[in-house]
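User: Hi! I'm working on a homework problem where we have to compare a predicted structure to a textbook description. Could you give me the structure for the chain below?
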Amino acid sequence: MLKQLEMAHWMLKDIIKTNDVVVDATMGNGYDTQFLAELGANVYAFDVQEEALNATEKRLDDAGIKNQIFDQIFEKNLSNLLTEPLVNLVLSGHEKLSEYVKEPIKAAIFNLGYLPKTDKSVVTKADTTLTALDALTNQLVVGGRIAIMIYYGHEGGMEEKDAVIKWTSSLPQKDWEVTSYAPLNQIHTPPILVLIEKRK
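Assistant: Happy to help. Predicted structure tokens:
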């Protein structure tokens, strides 16, 4: 049986083609960023922590994947963003993604929670996550998908989980297909995968 993240990757790989514009909304250690880049997509990856950008840059460099760090200092000079298939690493919260990504978006992935092995007080928040999701749904192409991995075993995680599930559940059925994938018999707080696809 596929794990939640494996299912997320499978559902995204099914639709992403070379040169598609995709978003890693929570860069972290760069695993999802690398996965998206290896599909030949043009990736915009976001994180507020420099540790995440540094770790992801190293991971991509080691894999031979072209990338550049796009710092908040230069955020107004958007011409610095590279447009060929590669990875733009953006030092900014995902709630600002519409300021950086101007093209139609084919797919996106979130890993909500905190960056492992770092400061657990730096976590994703319901308000900024919903802002990012709202922006993504406006820019998502028909047939595009968003995968949201919800980790909620930390302080504030339950509130974010509830907010995301409420928001995604309210999307109109005629325009959106929304489903969830999670174990039912695991103890503690196993992650929940929410998948969104734009119908029209």
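For your comparison, note the following. The beta strands are 21-24, 42-47, 67-70, 87-91, 105-112, 140-150, 176-181, 192-198. The CA atoms of residues 144 and 198 lie 6 Å apart. Good luck with the assignment!
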